[in-house]
Design goal:
The complex is a heterodimer.
Chain A (H helix, E strand, L loop, with lengths): L3 E4 L2 E4 L5 E7 L5 E8 L3 E10 L2 E4 L6 E3 L9 E3 L8 E8 L6 E3 L3 E5 L1
Parallel strand pairs in A: 2-11
Antiparallel strand pairs in A: 1-3, 3-8, 4-5, 4-9, 5-6, 7-8, 9-10, 9-11
Chain B lengths: L2 E4 L4 E4 L4 E3 L1 E4 L5 E7 L5 E7 L5 E4 L2 E4 L9 E3 L8 E8 L6 E3 L3 E6 L1
Parallel strand pairs in B: 2-12
Antiparallel strand pairs in B: 1-4, 3-9, 5-6, 5-10, 7-8, 8-9, 10-11, 10-12
The chains are: A mainly beta, B mainly beta.
Chain lengths: 112, 112
């Protein structure tokens, strides 16, 4: 089945540790996105990538990093510089810019 | 920059009532417009879309018309069901920004 997979579904980390969230798609989509969702704030764009080996900062990139070495994969690292990392993280992909996005099931990160 | 504004919730209706969720947008280019739905603990699912002015998107009894003159894309359904309870997001995507921009979401509660 084609789709977009995020793992793990739940993730717990100690404060000060870096953590990497996985996002894989087999839809042959060029564009991929990472969003953060907090209660009452909707979705905020962290990073996006239109093509392999290229990515741009979104609205809240500070404290996060990404890579796009393969078309299928767009991992997100939450670094210790992110002041409030506890949130629900959503990855998405689209065939190209200006087309609909398909979302993964999300990863809920809790930092204690 | 591009933005999406949608009515704040929560919206509470009785089963079989008529639903309208307002959405307006600002964009420098010619965006595609989307409605997504999110059920608790899950990612977003595309509900419907429209890619140019006067297009009507429809799915599962929901409809929305792309109104360029009023920069709006209001979501409507003639008779809601308890199973429609979810959070609804209006979104836009265009080549100019290369991003997908979301509204803050509207939580919908349907009472039996």
């Amino acid at each position: 089945d084609g789709g977009i997979t995020q793992s793990p579904k739940y993730l717990f980390r100690k404060e000060g540790q870096n953590v990497t969230l996985s996002c894989e798609q087999n839809l042959n989509h060029d564009a991929m996105y990472w969003y953060r969702q907090d209660p009452g704030q909707g979705l905020r764009l962290i990073y996006y990538s239109q093509i392999v080996n290229d990515f741009q900062k979104g609205d809240i990139a500070e404290g996060y990093s990404v890579s796009r070495e393969k078309k299928e994969s767009f991992p997100l690292t939450v670094t210790s510089a992110q002041k409030n990392p506890t949130a629900f993280y959503l990855c998405a992909s689209s065939f190209e810019v200006n087309t609909e996005a398909f979302f993964g099931q999300g990863t809920r990160l809790t930092v204690v | 920059g591009d933005s999406v504004t949608q009515m704040e919730g929560p919206v509470t209706l009785s089963e079989e009532a008529f639903l309208t969720i307002n959405c307006t947008y600002t964009a420098t280019g010619y965006p595609s417009l989307f409605w997504y739905v999110q059920y608790p603990g899950e990612g977003l699912q595309l509900l419907l879309k429209a890619t140019k002015a006067d297009d009507k998107g429809s799915n599962k009894g929901f409809e929305a018309t792309y109104r360029k003159e009023t920069t709006s894309f209001h979501l409507e359904k003639g008779s809601v069901q308890v199973s429609d309870s979810a959070v609804y997001f209006c979104a836009l995507s265009d080549y100019t920004s290369a991003k997908i921009i979301f509204g803050k979401g509207t939580r919908l509660h349907i009472l039996p």
